[in-house]
Amino acid sequence: MMDARTVNPLDDPNSEAAITYAKERHDNIRTFVRTNPDYYIRNFDKIGASARFTPTFNIMAGLFGPIWFGARGLWSWALPFLIIEALALVQIARGLFGDLGADAMARIASIEGTLELRRQQLAAAIESGSDRVEAFRRAVEGLEQNIGGIREEAAALAAQGPQIVLLGVCLLVLVKAAQATVANWALEARFSDWVSDRSIRSGMPVSHIVFSAIFMILIVTAAMLHYSLPGRFDLLGNFPTDPDIRLTSIEGVENFFNWAVLNGDALFDGITFVIRLVLDALEIVFVSTPWIVIAALIILLTWLTAGVRMAIYSGAFLSYMGLLGFWEKAMTTLALLGTAACLSILIGIPLGMFAARRPRFYAAIQPIMDFMQTMPAFVFMIPVIAFFGTGKPAAVVTTMIFGGTPVVRLTVLGLRGVPDSVREAAISFGANKWYLLTRVDLPLASPSIRAGINQTIMLSLAMVVVASLIGAKGLGEDVLEALQYANVGQGILAGFAILFCAMILDRIVQGQRK
Fold it and tell me: The pTM is what?
């Protein structure tokens, strides 16, 4: 009875299909490498015959190293090999030409100045018969011993030249051997990518060879000169600049902000009014309302969104804040946080909805959001204080800048992740744009949008302590006082209160019951 298994015709090297495939592969290799094709055909066939790493030896890659890899477009290999080769060559140059004891001799020169002063003081003390003669003599002897020890250290360092050269040579030989061994394997992987994507560069164009050679030589030469002859070339150690450039830039920035403050009073007053309106309303809700009402509402809301167990935990967390005297400050923190989070969400979700279907607009605002998230908070607090002064409105603006971007990004991500097939099906059944947005896009994107809201709230809470620096009240003020006066207990207890606020809000927003 015949075996019913399927037989791959390529498994038989004498079959017509296998011969045709091998011929096509060899033609592709010739087109890809362009130089010495027979050598690469032989080695690529050897490498392709096994799924494991197959070592071969490429003498040109070993000799020219990173230049060869860069000319072939293998920059992910060229740069690590360049760093290792530069390190090896620097060691060789230091051992052959470097002044290994230069730092020690510089220390001796600085000590000799002090030693000469102490000798003069000793001579004056002996002449005057002072009772400090012995003290000065001990100081002189100690400095002389230090100089002697440093001279021995300098001599020992100078004697290490041959060892450093040998270490550099060994490292260079090893990296050359590694480059020669992996070169064909790395190039064969690039060839496999080129077969499926012909936009990948092939061959070794002269322009790329020249660029790779100049780049590598410049990097290695600069490193060798800097480390082998320290301080000899000022250009390598210090960036060429003029102090007037910095002063002029500072003056220009200050003039811009002065102009903005003088001409933007109406805008900043309007923003402050809106922030005050929301903040005062939330402070009335959280701070002025009896604690038992707020606690009951928070526990009920947690139970409805996250279940009974989390409601019990929320009750315990709220009890912790109340028993330790953090209740009013915790509610002030929630009001401040709520203002920043609400405004961020009210601005961020519509902005994300607008940007989700407009790639150019989103590409334009992405650098702005990157700036808002990566710029240290203490930096953008400076213009905020200039525009809004100190106090709670400035703290809200600072918190919005730091925590407002995740809701935009995740709204865009969620809406772009809605399957096109679902949208097309809704459109085919007559859905208009409003129905498509409210009944299809937003429900399917809601997990991502909810995650963005959660991240905005968490990042806003992370700014509680920083915001206290510019006049925001609440739990951050206690942490700041603990830092100023090294009050460990107060800082830890207030920190736990902030943590519990974050956990309650996180469970409410990301509850199990959707």
Answer: 0.67
Is residue 245 situated within a structural domain?
no
d(CA 207, CA 214): 11
Q: Rounded to an integer, what distance in angstroms lies between the CA atom of residue 82 and that of residue 437?
A: 53
Q: In terms of Cα–Cα distance, which of 454, 447, 456, 446 is closest to 341?
A: 456
Cβ 183 vs Cβ 61: under 8 Å? yes
Asked if residue 409 belongs to a domain, the reply is: yes
Q: Is the pLDDT of residue 170 over 90?
A: yes
In-domain check, residue 117: yes
**Domain assignment of residue 198, yes or no:** yes
CATH at 449 = 1.10.3720.10
* SS3 per residue for 370-408: HHHHHCCHHHHHHHHHHHHCCCHHHHHHHHHHHHCHHHH
Beta-carbon contacts of residue 134 (< 8 Å; ≥ 6 apart): none
Cα atoms in the Cβ-side hemisphere of radius 13 Å centred on 188: 26
Both tokens assigned to 106: 């510089």
- Per residue in 373-418, pLDDT tens? 888 877 878 888 888 887 888 888 888 888 888 999 999 999 988 8
337 lies in the same domain as 308? yes
How far apart, in whole angstroms, are the C-alpha atoms of residue 317 and residue 493? 12
Contacts of 249 (CB under 8 A, 6+ apart): none
Residue 157 vs residue 275, higher pLDDT:
275
Single out the residue of 31, 48, 34, 41 nearest to residue 198, CA to CA.
31
| Domain, as residue range, for 370 | 263-509
Q: What is the DSSP letter of 229?
A: S
pLDDT 10s digits, 421-455: 888 888 888 888 888 888 888 888 888 888 888 88
Structural tokens at position 306: 């996250």
